[in-house]
Amino acid sequence: MRSYSPDLTPPWKRKQTPVPEVPAEVDLVVEEVSTGFCGAVIRCEKTAQGPTVTLEDRFGKHRVFPLAPRGFLLEGKVVTLVRPSSSAPAGPARTASGSLAVPGARARVARAGRIYVEGRHDAELVERVWGDDLRIEGVVVEYLEGIDDLPAIVAEFSPGPDARLGVLVDHLVPGSKESRIAASVTHPDVLVVGHPYIDVWEAVKPASVGIAGWPVVPRGQDWKTGVCRALGWPENTGAAWQRILSGVRSYKDLDPSLLGSVEHLIDFVTAP
């Protein structure tokens, strides 16, 4: 028996559900629905054919699109981009982390306190988003290449009230090896926080990388290699990481779980 849709109204006559209108502010990352082109807003212009928006993808390629209703995806949801209000007063300049920029500020002499992260990719991502803030605060980020020896590393650092240590851990979820290691560190001048992902790659929003989502990699397989394989990328994890990192322009490209953890660490090691 042939089944029929309960709604026999022709598609062009159906009433569409309203979607949010979002100002096309510079650096907003969106995906154009008909082409799948994903990029950051560079500018909006008024043309004879109507208003347009120019997007720049992670490779620096520019595409111009009309500001059509329901024409874009923002974090996977359909939106209508509109021109930003020209009457709105320009706000103060901000860093990639969203903090107020301090024009002409010099880097502070490095504090005794440190932030440790697990690997080079973690360090490069923190630098990309929080680098300006860290230099002003005099906070140095170092990477450990894993945290299996974290208790010994903490003991060697000799933390104290004037030399606090913050540690950012991957895959910090209940029952994980990482959570057990983190729980073994109880020094009052050490803070261990993390994010739930197996690797910091996953803390970058898929839309910022130009993918629909991060693939699930079977257990027992190298996660990064598995991601490259599933996405059809060359199995070169170094090149893949540069591709991912190039899509990160600001804190808006990162998962909130990572944002909160890094901000917490910076506050901890810079507290009076």
From TrEMBL:
InterPro entries: DUF3097_C (IPR021447), DUF3097_N (IPR053883). Pfam families: DUF3097_C, DUF3097_N. Residues 21-84, 114-270 form the DUF3097 domain. It comes from the Bacteria. This is DUF3097 domain-containing protein.
